[in-house]
Amino acid sequence: MKDEPGVGLSRLKSPNWYLPILMLVLLIGNPLVLDSTTYIQVSILVLWYACLTASWNFVGGFAGVLPLGHAAFAGIGAYTSTLLFMNWGITPWIGMLVGGVLAVLAALVIGIPTFKLHGAYYALSSIAVVEIIRIITENTQSIFGIQVNGTQGLLVPLKGHAPLYFQFGEKIYFYYIILAILILIVTIAYKINNSKLGYYLVAGGEDQEAAESLGINVTRCKLIALSLSAFFTAIAGTFYAQLVLYIFPQGIMALNLSFEIAFIAIIGGRGTLLGPVIGAMILVPIGEISRIYLSGSRFLGIHLMMYGAIIVVAMLYKPQGMMGSFEKWYWMLVDKLGGKSPNAG
Amino acid sequence: MEYFLEVLINGVLTGGLYGVTAIGLTLIFGVIKVINFAHGTYLMIAMYAAYGVCVGFGMDPYLSMILIVPFSFAVGYVSQVVFVTPCLKAEKDVREPVSVLLLTAGLWIFVNNLFLMLFGANFRSLQTPYSGAVFEIGNMMISRTLLYAFCFSVLTTALLTVFLKKTNMGRAIRAVGQDREAAGLMGINIFKVYNVAFGIGIATLGVAGAIIIPMFYVHPFAGDVYDMRDFVIVVLGGLGSVPGALLGGIIVGVVESFAGEYLNMSWAAGIIYIIFLLTLFLRPQGIFGFEKDS
């Protein structure tokens, strides 16, 4: 989209921007329309998953590898901010950034050896890493005098309505915070998608040897993508801890969460800018609503069953995800409005 | 010393059981190059089938194999035809068959939760005259069912190895595993070989399911504990190597047995994952594998 008319803010007048702006307006107005606690709670979860999947997409989509252990980073974020808050009273706003930095360090330590592995081996090694981190956390009662509480997990100390401590009396605040984080992630993804780094990542993901022979340092590009991914996943982890006020290894570091993130992103369309977000917007409400209304004793795992069925059908008939069709409709609409699609030249 | 020996023997025997759950995975991985995340789920299906036959017809679990093994073969064959082959064909020009991996992961989650809905979350256990029986050697206690399981594992490994070495189908399977293009050029119908390989891979889980039910509970998620462990075993033993899977299983069994005895079971799983990562970094072809497989 380099050849858009106008510069700076004036280019927002181009029809290409009508739909994104409409979507933004809808997202901002969304909680004002239906003032029900359940509705806002589900909306928050949708945006939370969208943050996780959009972060996953930096490495799982753009870089073309298949990480199945992203819950590790969410866990690092959640545990760092919560432990800092409990032990030293450091506000989770700062703890969130510390967690993000720690997650980046972990990503580098994990990424440097594991990116040597190809395809499925990389996926398996990422599972092993998240499981090791979970097992260590579960078996640690306290370390250097800091209570970790093993399998029981941690309760975030209540402060009431205290915006300085990332705690709010009403859910609506959380909605706008997670929306802001999501917009930040998507903006960065958009910048990367249209930068040299983005092209390098795609080239490295499609054919590593060919890309390297052209002088691209593929491993370095992948590490940058993984670091960004880990940073924002950790931030989403802290957000979750503050929203739910209770974290435990089997929840925030579980393999289930890692798989869910990857599934949603892939069904939405891995490697596309908005595919993971669309995936979360479609799948999470289905999952949550069926969880709320159908999880009687008779339909114990129905929402997971639907996820499984959807991914099987998606892999058989639409392995590139739903975004492909959406994109086609989108550009058709843009054409009608008088805008320019990139393929039209 | 005797205690040490008892832990060791228990580890070896349990490892044999792990080995038989992993040989199907190594075969499927080695031949079709598909990471089957639903492997534990197929094991769970075999366990439910064996349990059903034993309770329904009052059959002995070991005897039930004559029904369960062909049944599992059919389940595997049909899965390959209905799910894996279309997926493989759809992504012919993609280099890493990642969508098949995700397909099997989807099957895993779907079938597990389907069974949870159909049969509920309660644990079922099979009572046999020899459940819980032990052989006593000196002060050592060796579980009888575990010893039987070990014997069946060794037997299954031996039979499968002979089959792969001596029969035409076995040779075709190995040829496709080594180089699918060359095998195709030699006139081998690759997709038919895939069907049979997947069928045999799942059939070995029929053996596993039958020997597990006298010992452990049957539950919709009973197969999951074998899933990641089987990947570790397969990588440790070398991809596609059937004896390697048995040996890898024994190594994992012994490590788990000692770690479980001197630390706890949860740490044991952590140690297994660390061994897994070290194998991937240092010797990705595994113990029995060849350099080019990695």
TrEMBL record, chain A:
<dbReference type="GO" id="GO:0005886">
    <property type="term" value="C:plasma membrane"/>
</dbReference>
<dbReference type="InterPro" id="IPR043428">
    <property type="entry name" value="LivM-like"/>
</dbReference>
<feature type="transmembrane region" description="Helical">
    <location>
        <begin position="223"/>
        <end position="249"/>
    </location>
</feature>
<feature type="transmembrane region" description="Helical">
    <location>
        <begin position="299"/>
        <end position="317"/>
    </location>
</feature>
<dbReference type="GO" id="GO:0015658">
    <property type="term" value="F:branched-chain amino acid transmembrane transporter activity"/>
</dbReference>
<feature type="transmembrane region" description="Helical">
    <location>
        <begin position="17"/>
        <end position="34"/>
    </location>
</feature>
<feature type="transmembrane region" description="Helical">
    <location>
        <begin position="261"/>
        <end position="287"/>
    </location>
</feature>
<feature type="transmembrane region" description="Helical">
    <location>
        <begin position="46"/>
        <end position="73"/>
    </location>
</feature>
<keyword id="KW-0812">Transmembrane</keyword>
<keyword id="KW-1133">Transmembrane helix</keyword>
<keyword id="KW-0472">Membrane</keyword>
<protein>
    <submittedName>
        <fullName>Amino acid ABC transporter permease</fullName>
    </submittedName>
</protein>
<dbReference type="Pfam" id="PF02653">
    <property type="entry name" value="BPD_transp_2"/>
</dbReference>
<feature type="transmembrane region" description="Helical">
    <location>
        <begin position="93"/>
        <end position="112"/>
    </location>
</feature>
<dbReference type="InterPro" id="IPR001851">
    <property type="entry name" value="ABC_transp_permease"/>
</dbReference>
<keyword id="KW-1003">Cell membrane</keyword>
<feature type="transmembrane region" description="Helical">
    <location>
        <begin position="119"/>
        <end position="137"/>
    </location>
</feature>
<feature type="transmembrane region" description="Helical">
    <location>
        <begin position="172"/>
        <end position="190"/>
    </location>
</feature>
From TrEMBL, chain B:
<dbReference type="InterPro" id="IPR001851">
    <property type="entry name" value="ABC_transp_permease"/>
</dbReference>
<keyword id="KW-1133">Transmembrane helix</keyword>
<feature type="transmembrane region" description="Helical">
    <location>
        <begin position="141"/>
        <end position="164"/>
    </location>
</feature>
<dbReference type="InterPro" id="IPR052157">
    <property type="entry name" value="BCAA_transport_permease"/>
</dbReference>
<dbReference type="GO" id="GO:0022857">
    <property type="term" value="F:transmembrane transporter activity"/>
</dbReference>
<dbReference type="GO" id="GO:0005886">
    <property type="term" value="C:plasma membrane"/>
</dbReference>
<feature type="transmembrane region" description="Helical">
    <location>
        <begin position="42"/>
        <end position="59"/>
    </location>
</feature>
<keyword id="KW-1003">Cell membrane</keyword>
<protein>
    <submittedName>
        <fullName>Branched-chain amino acid ABC transporter permease</fullName>
    </submittedName>
</protein>
<feature type="transmembrane region" description="Helical">
    <location>
        <begin position="100"/>
        <end position="121"/>
    </location>
</feature>
<feature type="transmembrane region" description="Helical">
    <location>
        <begin position="196"/>
        <end position="219"/>
    </location>
</feature>
<dbReference type="Pfam" id="PF02653">
    <property type="entry name" value="BPD_transp_2"/>
</dbReference>
<feature type="transmembrane region" description="Helical">
    <location>
        <begin position="231"/>
        <end position="255"/>
    </location>
</feature>
<keyword id="KW-0812">Transmembrane</keyword>
<keyword id="KW-0813">Transport</keyword>
<feature type="transmembrane region" description="Helical">
    <location>
        <begin position="12"/>
        <end position="35"/>
    </location>
</feature>
<feature type="transmembrane region" description="Helical">
    <location>
        <begin position="65"/>
        <end position="88"/>
    </location>
</feature>
<keyword id="KW-0472">Membrane</keyword>
<comment type="similarity">
    <text>Belongs to the binding-protein-dependent transport system permease family. LivHM subfamily.</text>
</comment>
<dbReference type="GO" id="GO:0006865">
    <property type="term" value="P:amino acid transport"/>
</dbReference>
<feature type="transmembrane region" description="Helical">
    <location>
        <begin position="262"/>
        <end position="282"/>
    </location>
</feature>
<keyword id="KW-0029">Amino-acid transport</keyword>
